[in-house]
Amino acid sequence: MIALEKRPQPSQFWSFAAPIVAVILTMIFGAALFAMLGKPPIEALGKIFWEPLFGEYNFFYLPQLLIKGAPLVAIALGLSLGFKAGIWNIGAEGQYIIGALCGAGVGLAFYPMEARWLIFPVMLIAGAFGGFAWAMIPGILRVKFNTNEILVSLMLVYVAEQLLASMALGVMKNPDGMGFPGSRNLSQYASSSSWIDQSNGMHWGVVIALIGVIFAYILFAKHILGFQIKLAGQAPRAAAFSGVSPARLVLFCLGTSGALAGIAGLTEVSGPAGIVSIDFNVGYGFTAIIVAFLGRLHPVGILFAGALMALTYIGGDIAQSSLGLPKAAMQMFQGMLLFCLLGVDVLTNYRVRMMKRGAV
Amino acid sequence: MTEPLMKLVELTKAYPGVVANSDVSFNIEAGKVHALLGENGAGKSTLVKTIYGLVKPDTGTMVLDGKPFTPTEPRAARAAGIAMVFQHFSLFEALTVAENVALGMENPPPLRDLAQRIRDVSETYGLPLDPSRIVGDLSAGERQRVEIIRCLLQDPKVLIMDEPTSVLTPQEVDILFETLRKLKSEGTAILYISHKLEEIRALCDHATVLRLGKVVGTCDPRETSAREMAELMVGGTLHVPKREAGEAGETLMQINGLSAPSPREFGTSLKDIRIDVRAGDVIGIGGVAGNGQDELLSALSGEIRAGAGQISFLGNDIGHLAPDARRTLGICAAPEERMGHAAAPDMSLTENAALTARKRKDLTNNGFIDWGKTRNFANEIIERFDVRTPGPGNAARSLSGGNLQKFVIGREILQDPQILIVNQPTWGVDASAAAAIRQALLDLAAKGAGVIVISQDLDELMEISDSFAALNEGRLSKPRPAKELTVEEIGLMLGGAHDMEVAHVETAS
User: What is the ipTM of this complex?
Assistant: First the structure.
């Protein structure tokens, strides 16, 4: 018989080792999956993990890593604040869209002005505010009427998608676009582009994500607010006893994660994506939930998890195109990653004891 | 001498890092009340869980009725005639008494028949209880009767009672004892766990004393003094807290018509509470669990805000202030529930030190926590209050209940509060540590603080309080000087609105 026994202390070793073991397990199960699909397993893993980083064409893939990783990290950081406090913002995708729309709206409204010192900062602020405001809807509803923020924030994603479609086909449509759906390409104008160095994949979203990691790290390591967030998540009654106001915490966590998602949306729409189009959002807001947990809600962990997730996206694309792996297999592979992590995670708080049958 | 009903032979059970029971042997005889004595952590709970089939012993055997007895689960133990009343009730508050009883049965009869059987048993044994009432509306004593009747319906050979009187008023204790004596006269063996020695002297025929998992002595409680038994339990001499009788000083805090709804369902609202707290005063607030103790502490700590003018401190209204603002003024509190309320179980002791001491110990700088200073404070608590732990980096949940309690109380006392409110300060703490905590509370009062001690342990309250008031269904009686009170009077103050029907048991002849 195998029995799980709660550790008196969470294991230091396993909290570091669990993600690594999870990645290795995912590789093993993934290889088995690829083999069953009749694809060469080792080669497929190589395409996913090796090719983008060290392969022949890595000059093309490495910048992609920044582009795909930055929004994941920025959004996941914001989500991790709430997740630690037991506040579940599932609607980052919607906040991402609204942030992009607000920021892009500012950029498009100023067209064809060229004052970058004015326009881009205002776009950033508008993007952050858009995401913030969208997240405040579930926030205020929860604080005032005790609604469930999971449902409200999730539903608002679909509202945001409809708004996006209407904007892309209506108000924001490029008047010089010969009738094609979508806005002007913001990344083509010096005043509104988020690119810093396009050839290396550097844009302001990357910078903000990295600054966010540092801020979040300091917040949790040193600041009373980070302490209160953790406390509220682990022991709500102790938090109330300590003097944490639950309502303020809900608004802070939802607002911050909304603003970060909004900024991620804005830097995406004015850089890598360029235009407001109906299919502008590709699910970063949902994938970031996985990233947040994969990084065990720790800022540095999220940085690595975001990079890893971006890698599987890029490597997955390579494997799809060069080996003909089905897209669903790649999604399953990413799902396995989270599944393995959660499975191995048990070892952080529990130890496995072998027992003789009957001697329980 | 007849063969004993149940024999425990060299039972040993080890958990990682601790031996809970080591070679425990004793006999339980039919028609006797057998006391199991010991401090918290002595291994009493493990032992009774073994008998009840919840824990498997590593070695050792049990014999029931001359046959080997190895229950693999409580169901098997119940089938063999073992019944147990736990210290913490497992009842559904939203259901009726009869429904709750039915839920615990293998094949419950139709509810109407069951209700009749409950009525029969409750009459036979003098346990007044109406099967159609909702459990959420019952007092703690009545809830316990539900548990007892649930056991009696099984017609048990051995009835185990774990700290049954900790939630009862003295009058309710009398009712319970009548019932137990009646059961005993019918031949039921009762294994009675308690650390209230006077009760054991009044009720029990044998006593086995456990310390650190081992049997350290047996005695006849009718012929052994409470002090001797206590010293057997702790394995040393007991220190009794002393205090210098001081003049009560100026009024620090006035509670003037405090009323507040409970934040919990089936909680007790506070109703028009009035009391003045003066410097150097220790006010004891007694009451049966669930009569508003939690709510009173929360209202004073600031978790529940009070209306204007209901609580004032040095003449200023503080009812609207949040916990941290009250702490800044010098009002500290220690709630009853250690895990998850007074302390966060998964956080380290250092982090738990910051939980309440941030303002008064000046542990933050512009919102940034000075972890070095916080760790020093945690170390100070550990040292001064003899908290047994490898260090302040350990998670709160790794501490035993008593040790964590010492940490929580120490954390508040070392903040040097002007008012300290504690709820059940020594619950689950061993006798010598309890004495140390009581002494620390008295020392704090001697330094000029006002102390409110909410407790269900009347002996404790009588030992340290200057004045005594009882909390009953959210109402506080008028405080009276503790010295003048007799146990009977206290019982009546506590009982208040509860039905105080004395058991109408036909005396066993």
Answer: 0.83
